[in-house]
């Protein structure tokens, strides 16, 4: 899978992308989640945890690059669009839309009827982004965010893709 729009390329992630993905994830996660998730989850999300998780998840990562540099990524996990983050300098330029579309297509191509994702309840910017893209907010639920010792309960909203 490789697509391009304007000066961006969307492709499957490779090991060479891991450091950029970890950095973007770490910065974006803080921007999106601090103040919206339990302290136990913030404590578990150390810089090393992003490095390790980016390495472990490279096989289900799609990246967007500009001039060969990773500017954003999305991960899938079965029928879930699990992570979507952009470099701070790339926000607002359409890469998030391209990544969301690529992830939805990957989930559906894998044989799932619908894609879904979880958004922390307080992350209103992300909730508006998904709504603008036609994703349907099915309401609140408690998401079990994985951490080394198990999981942490996070109040979220479940969104489902418009394509079925």
UniProtKB/TrEMBL annotation:
<feature type="domain" description="N-acetyltransferase">
    <location>
        <begin position="8"/>
        <end position="161"/>
    </location>
</feature>
<dbReference type="Pfam" id="PF00583">
    <property type="entry name" value="Acetyltransf_1"/>
</dbReference>
<keyword id="KW-0012">Acyltransferase</keyword>
<dbReference type="InterPro" id="IPR000182">
    <property type="entry name" value="GNAT_dom"/>
</dbReference>
<dbReference type="GO" id="GO:0016747">
    <property type="term" value="F:acyltransferase activity, transferring groups other than amino-acyl groups"/>
</dbReference>
<dbReference type="InterPro" id="IPR016181">
    <property type="entry name" value="Acyl_CoA_acyltransferase"/>
</dbReference>
<dbReference type="InterPro" id="IPR050832">
    <property type="entry name" value="Bact_Acetyltransf"/>
</dbReference>
<protein>
    <submittedName>
        <fullName>GNAT family N-acetyltransferase</fullName>
    </submittedName>
</protein>
<keyword id="KW-0808">Transferase</keyword>
């Amino acid at each position: 899978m490789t697509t391009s729009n304007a000066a961006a390329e969307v492709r499957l992630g490779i090991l060479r992308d891991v450091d950029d993905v970890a950095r973007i994830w770490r910065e974006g996660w803080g921007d999106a989640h601090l103040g919206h998730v339990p302290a136990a989850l913030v404590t578990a999300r150390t810089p090393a945890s992003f490095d390790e998780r980016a390495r472990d998840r490279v096989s289900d990562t799609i990246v967007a690059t500009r001039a060969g540099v990773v500017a954003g990524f999305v991960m899938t996990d079965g029928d879930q669009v699990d992570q979507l983050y952009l470099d701070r300098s790339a926000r607002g330029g359409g890469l998030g839309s391209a990544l969301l579309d690529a992830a939805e297509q990957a989930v559906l191509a894998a044989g799932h009827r619908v894609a879904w994702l979880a958004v922390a309840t307080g992350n209103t910017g992300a909730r508006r982004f998904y709504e603008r893209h036609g994703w349907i907010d099915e309401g609140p639920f408690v998401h079990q965010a994985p951490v080394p010792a198990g999981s942490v309960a996070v109040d979220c909203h479940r969104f489902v893709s418009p394509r079925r």
